[in-house]
Amino acid sequence: MTSKPNKKISLKEAVKLWEDKNGKGENVKKIGDQLELKFNGWYPPIEKLDSSTSVFTKCEFLSISTNMIERLNHFNYLKCLRILSVGRNFLKTLSGIEACADTLEEIWASYNQIEKPSKGLLSCKKLRTIYLGNNWIREWTEISRFNELPELEELVLIGNPLSDQFLSSGNEFSDWQREVWKKIGQLKKLDGYNIVNSSAEKSEEA
Q1: pTM
Q2: Per-residue DSSP letter, 175
Q3: How far apart are the C-alpha atoms of 150 and 145, rounded to whole Å?
Q4: What region, left, alpha or beta, does residue 49 occupy, with left being phi > 0 and alpha being psi -120 to 50 degrees?
Q5: What's the angle, vertex CA 58, arms to CA 54 and CA 61, rounded to 5?
């Protein structure tokens, strides 16, 4: 397991570094005017979020992936957020993201420690894309709950204990795809592949 760096910073410190880099010279950028903000792979890594998100007033795409964040909080300020990238952190839950339920369309949260992603996500009814590969999801009940997201079309689940156990039991990827689709009938793409003949299979079952 990768050892944790000794030096870590808060989002407030990362914002200050961003402003120092982008707020000077001929092409001055104001963080509050940015539609897209990237704090991914920050060094030293960001350990926690804070009320500095209050300056992300126009942000539609926020990337804070590849850091050391354990909790999603202070998202109530992000009134325009459509896409959130939080992969490769230390998240155990997506609770807190419901603050963006009115606008959030995509969340990229692979390579974390999330076991029950439905907490938080089910409030976000506009979600179209969810990436949850290589997490700790073990239960089919968690997958079934995604059927409550009417706009959900694309989902990544590969690399979770649930998929690993299913595929190591002699099942093919097509079996995995079919089993997930039975539980989330609106899906069009799973683990990077289109769901083939889903409408035909559905009509046959009907």
Answers
A1: 0.91
A2: H
A3: 11
A4: beta
A5: 100
